[in-house]
């Protein structure tokens, strides 16, 4: 009898187990120089059911949810502009600040709306950076830690890491260097038990 997996999202049975590789990215600023360090983290197993995956994709296909999240900063800037208009004492300063806050709010709102429209089109088509595999990675990332200490965490399906033809696409999606992906792929090919020791073996704090 096949093993039954419990979905991490809803807690129901009948889920599929997805091996997933965590990547750590740390950005270090030194004066004007910005250096990015990338390293392999743990190889995890996360179980997700098809219903939760389909629900996540359906939500991402609808721009309303994304707009509410993306427009909170433009709305905040617009509120500040209104507050400055009514509370400011100096007319010149008041109008300049209103124009600045209002201009920033409008620019950010237009940029975010264009981005969401572009992403929604790609998600509905299931191509570009928004294939079903990428949606699975997004859902997994929403259920896992986003950071480890000062490092940002990205999660990529092990099957994609093992497919060298997808390294360019993964690089475009997550900014993980193709050199690092090739190193991780080689390591996973030669290591039967992929545990946190992968972090110690393949990562020497190299500068990417």
Q: What layout of secondary structure does this protein have?
A:
Layout (H helix, E strand, L loop, with lengths): L15 E15 L2 E16 L1 H12 L1 H8 L1 H16 L3 H35 L6 H12 L3 E2 L2 E7 H5 L4 H8 L3 H13 L6 H6 L6
Antiparallel strand pairs: 1-2, 1-4, 3-4
Helix pairs in contact: 2-4, 3-4
Task: Please supply descriptive tags for the structure shown above.
alpha+beta, disordered C terminus
Structural features, described:
By secondary structure, the protein is α+β, with helices and mostly antiparallel strands. The protein has 2 domains: 16-55 and 130-202, no CATH class; 62-125. Helix content is 55%, strand content 19%. Strand 3 (147-148) and strand 4 form a beta hairpin. The longest helix is centred in the middle third of the chain and has 35 residues, at 91-125. The model is unreliable at 194-208 (pLDDT under 50).
């Amino acid at each position: 009898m096949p093993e039954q997996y419990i979905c991490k999202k809803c807690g129901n049975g009948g889920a599929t187990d997805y091996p997933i590789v965590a990547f750590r990215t740390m950005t270090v600023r030194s004066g004007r120089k910005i250096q990015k360090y990338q390293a392999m983290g743990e190889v995890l197993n996360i179980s997700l059911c098809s219903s939760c995956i389909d629900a996540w994709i359906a939500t991402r296909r609808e721009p309303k949810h994304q707009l509410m999240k993306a427009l909170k900063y433009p709305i905040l800037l617009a509120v500040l502009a209104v507050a400055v208009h009514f509370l400011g004492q100096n007319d010149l300063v008041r109008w300049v600040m209103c124009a600045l806050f209002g201009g920033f709010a409008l620019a950010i709102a237009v940029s975010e709306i264009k981005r969401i429209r572009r992403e929604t089109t790609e998600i509905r088509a299931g191509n570009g950076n928004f294939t079903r595999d990428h949606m699975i990675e997004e859902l997994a990332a929403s259920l896992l830690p986003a950071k480890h200490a000062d490092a940002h965490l990205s999660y990529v399906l092990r099957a994609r890491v093992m497919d060298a033809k997808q390294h360019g696409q993964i690089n475009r999606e997550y900014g993980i260097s193709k050199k690092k992906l090739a190193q991780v792929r080689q390591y996973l090919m030669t290591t039967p038990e992929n545990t946190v020791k992968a972090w110690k073996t393949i990562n020497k704090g190299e500068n990417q």
